[in-house]
């Protein structure tokens, strides 16, 4: 196996499954937690992540196939998606595809899933299809506040990693999101994004 990415809550390894490339995600032990509690949390999150990856497919969204889940060792073996990270796309193409990303995120929210780590590195364009990856922080929630946190993170990523196209990319994202969730829900969530931003802007360090 070859390490391809280190993450805060898990490492990704390139491996082989039935003679095809596959990805093994291994959740890390957290030494600052009680060992029994840590083991229980990692098992629960491994199971939840694998379930959500599969559940999201039923919404018509492309995600990697889950081949095998080992809750004892807190690992998920899944399909390796060949393609280009949205992060690496040319600026003009990235700007356009943000509308599709907005639709996908809106569809997840409408069905009660918060991704939790919406970055342009967690979307892959593969043979014309948009795949969503890394559901390690995903949770089932219909709270508008949680969905607003998802949007706020994506906006922050655009503003830091894609600043030159941020304005148009964010505009396209919002257009796509609105088509998925409807005008009422759209207004509620985006208003909460503004509330979150104002908290950060005027927060003081004590």
Task: List descriptors.
206 residues, alpha+beta, Phosphorylase Kinase, domain 1, Transferase(Phosphotransferase), domain 1, 2 domains, three-stranded antiparallel beta sheet, 5 helices, 10 strands, globular, disordered C terminus
What would you say this structure looks like, in words?
- By secondary structure, this protein is an alpha+beta fold.
- It has two domains: about 1-80, Phosphorylase Kinase, domain 1 (2-Layer Sandwich); about 85-200, Transferase(Phosphotransferase) domain 1 (Transferase(Phosphotransferase), domain 1).
- Helices cover about 45% and strands about 20% of the residues.
- The protein has helices at about 35-55, 90-110, 145-160, 165-180, 185-200; strands at about 1-5, 10-15, 20-25, 65-70, 75-80, 85, 115, 125, 130, 140.
- The strands form three sheets. Strands 1-2-3-5-4 form a five-stranded antiparallel β-sheet, with helices on one face. The chain has a three-stranded antiparallel β-sheet with strand order 6-8-9, with no helix packed on it.
- β1 and β2 form a beta hairpin.
- α4 packs across α5.
- It is globular.
């Amino acid at each position: 196996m070859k390490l391809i990415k280190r993450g805060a809550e898990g490492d990704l390894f390139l491996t082989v499954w039935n003679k095809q490339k596959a990805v093994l995600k291994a959740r890390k032990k957290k030494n600052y937690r009680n060992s029994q509690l840590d083991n229980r949390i990692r098992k629960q999150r491994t199971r939840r992540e694998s379930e959500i990856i599969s559940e999201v497919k039923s919404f018509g969204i492309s995600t990697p196939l889950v081949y095998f889940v080992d809750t004892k060792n807190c690992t998920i073996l899944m399909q390796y998606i060949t393609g280009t990270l949205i992060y690496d796309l040319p600026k003009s193409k990235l700007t356009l595809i943000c509308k599709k990303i907005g639709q996908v995120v809106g569809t997840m929210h409408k069905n009660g899933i918060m991704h939790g780590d919406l970055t342009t590195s967690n979307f892959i364009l593969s043979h014309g299809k948009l795949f969503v990856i890394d559901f390690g922080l995903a949770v089932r929630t219909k709270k508008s506040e949680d969905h607003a946190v998802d949007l706020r993170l994506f906006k922050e990523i655009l503003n830091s990693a894609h600043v030159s196209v941020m304005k148009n990319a964010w505009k396209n994202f919002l257009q796509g999101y609105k088509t998925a969730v409807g005008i009422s829900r759209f207004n509620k969530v985006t208003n909460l994004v503004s509330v979150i931003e104002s908290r950060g802007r005027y927060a003081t360090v004590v």
